[in-house]
Design goal:
9-stranded mixed β-sheet, disordered N terminus, 9 strands
Length: about 190
């Protein structure tokens, strides 16, 4: 049985079980920005969007500077509202719409933060996510009990400074699991 501190996963990372085959969440790391008796919300932090670029996004929003924006990766935040943008970022950047999750991590969703990131004046660390992941009341807890998710502490190093293709394995390593030692077959006792 798992134990969640104070019954709350806010500020933690979910690591998909090596055996989770869901097309959206296989080999994913999800940062949970909100968890309560009403459900949970978070963002996948290790899957880049390949078919849509920041330049494509910038073409749909009014950027204030006429210069071309920096090259910036976009991430698949989750399967819900995939056209809605969010920025998971360091707390060196806080504006009126920013929701501070903990000492190191915040979430914003204004066009201002996108503009500031595009021209190098935004938060030091950031992930721009299109879409989000959400769970109904008790749904996430049930998925954890079904061994779909493992729980780890979050860290800016993992979220912002680890290559996307390495985040899942590093997150597993952070809880003492070596992905190289896992079998391709699973079972539940």
């Amino acid at each position: 049985m798992f134990k969640i501190d104070n019954g709350n996963l806010t500020g933690k990372c979910l690591i998909s079980s090596p055996y989770l085959e869901d097309e959206h969440f296989a080999r994913s790391v999800v940062y949970i920005c909100s968890h309560s008796h009403e459900g949970a919300m978070g963002f996948i932090v290790n899957k880049k969007i390949e078919e849509f670029s920041f330049a494509d996004l910038a073409g749909h929003i009014p950027l204030s500077n006429g210069l071309p924006p920096l090259r910036i990766d976009l991430h698949q935040g989750g399967p819900l509202e995939r056209i809605r943008g969010f920025v998971l970022h360091s707390t060196d950047y806080v504006k009126p719409d920013t929701v501070v999750i903990d000492n190191d991590i915040a979430v914003s969703s204004s066009i201002d933060i996108i503009n500031d990131i595009a021209y190098g004046t935004g938060p030091k660390d950031n992930i721009i996510a299109l879409g989000y992941s959400s769970w109904k009341p008790q749904q996430l807890e049930q998925e954890i009990m079904n061994n779909d998710w493992l729980i780890s502490e979050s860290a800016p190093e993992l979220l912002f400074r680890t290559k996307d293709e390495e985040k899942w394995e590093k997150a597993l390593n952070s809880i003492g699991i070596d992905a190289g030692n896992l079998s391709n077959f699973s079972g539940r006792a």
